[in-house]
């Protein structure tokens, strides 16, 4: 069993600020750090730290060797990451004193992944495996089509949200993960509620209100209360949740159990400053004491 993740790889430039800037405002930051990030890389690292075998499909520029090396250190299979003639993607992230964030993305090499590369990476994948993708790379629909034809369980974290991109892949999906804002945008774009989407399992993360799982086959919805913690940085929490969710499912957990595991990981994540480099592992979850 393995998780094949078509995902972005970024250098995260994180600026701590007293508050998130408004239009026209010049604001001095109190610190700057660089770390491994990108929704795809974050999810791959999270799933790997949750003891899953993870094959990352992506691309970096010549300047991205450090990012690939970091992912390898965290246990991710990096053999399907290409080096292309473009700059590695990066994100400019502002984080305020309440832990909220603002993110600007430069896609770079994340939009230079070839169909040949994807087909080669998935050639040995099959029904025991999961295919995961997001909206920070090109070729998501193409890759999901291959994965679906080969019998993989297809999971989609539809962020950054794009209604047309979601509509193009809905028939291929087994699992859809969204946050509350994205869910509202999807309902507006499609005219369908989460419970009526043609996807068996829909998970909507609700921040401090926890999350909701819709099993559309059974016509049931289940709410999972949030784990109370004091956040210092919410960057990467959703990605950590998704990576752990996929790892739990890959290990054969029922959806409810996998969601609970993912919530614990995300709760720890928001108490840490950073992205992929500070994603908790299973020992962190075992040692955690939540009130």
Unreliable residue runs? none
**What portion of the residues fall into strands of 2 or more residues?**
15-25%
> How is the largest sheet built, in terms of strand order?
5-4-1-8-9-10-11-12-13
Q: What's the number of structural domains?
A: 1
CATH architecture identity: 3-Layer(aba) Sandwich
Distance between the termini: 35 Å
Can you tell me the CATH superfamily? Ribokinase
Please report the first level of CATH classification, the CATH class: Alpha Beta
Molecular shape: globular
The helix-and-strand class reads alpha/beta
Mean pLDDT: 94
Number of helices: 9
Summarize this entry quickly.
The protein has one domain: UDP-N-acetylmuramoyl-L-alanine:D-glutamate ligase (3-Layer(aba) Sandwich), CATH 3.40.1190.20.
Task: Please explain how this structure is put together.
With 291 residues, the protein is α/β, with parallel strands linked by helices. The chain has one domain: Ribokinase (UDP-N-acetylmuramoyl-L-alanine:D-glutamate ligase, 3-Layer(aba) Sandwich). 31% of the residues lie in helices and 24% in strands. The chain contains nine helices and 13 strands. The chain has a nine-stranded mixed sheet, sandwiched between helices. Strands 3-2-6-7 form a four-stranded mixed sheet. Helix 1 packs across helix 7 and helix 7 packs antiparallel against helix 8. The longest helix is centred in the last third of the chain and has 15 residues. It is globular. The model has no long low-confidence stretch (mean pLDDT 94).
């Amino acid at each position: 069993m393995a998780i094949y993740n078509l995902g972005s790889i970024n250098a995260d430039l994180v600026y701590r600020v007293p508050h998130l800037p408004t239009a026209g405002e010049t604001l001095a930051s109190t610190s700057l750090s660089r770390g491994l990030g990108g929704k795809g890389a974050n999810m791959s690292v999270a799933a790997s730290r949750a003891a899953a075998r993870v094959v990352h499909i992506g691309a970096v520029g010549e300047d991205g060797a450090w990012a690939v090396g970091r992912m390898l250190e965290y246990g991710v299979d990096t053999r399907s990451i290409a080096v292309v003639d473009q700059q590695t993607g990066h994100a400019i992230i502002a984080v305020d004193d309440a832990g909220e964030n603002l993110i600007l993305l430069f896609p770079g090499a994340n939009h230079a992944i070839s169909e040949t590369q994807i087909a080669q990476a998935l050639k040995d994948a099959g029904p025991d495996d999961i295919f995961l993708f997001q909206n920070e790379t090109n070729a998501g629909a193409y890759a999901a089509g291959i994965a679906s034809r080969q019998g993989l369980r297809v999971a989609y974290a539809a962020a950054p949200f794009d209604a047309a991109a979601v509509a193009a892949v809905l028939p291929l999906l087994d699992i859809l993960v969204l946050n509350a804002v994205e869910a509202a945008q999807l309902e507006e774009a499609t005219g369908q509620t989460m419970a009526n989407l043609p996807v068996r399992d829909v998970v909507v993360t609700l921040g401090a209100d926890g999350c909701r799982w819709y099993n559309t086959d059974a016509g049931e919805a289940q709410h999972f209360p949030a784990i109370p913690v004091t956040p210092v940085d919410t960057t990467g929490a959703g990605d950590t949740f998704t990576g752990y969710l996929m790892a739990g499912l890959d290990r054969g957990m029922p959806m409810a159990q996998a969601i609970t595991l993912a919530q614990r990981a995300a709760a720890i994540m928001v108490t840490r400053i950073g992205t992929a480099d500070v994603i908790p592992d299973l020992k962190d979850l075992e040692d955690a004491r939540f009130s």
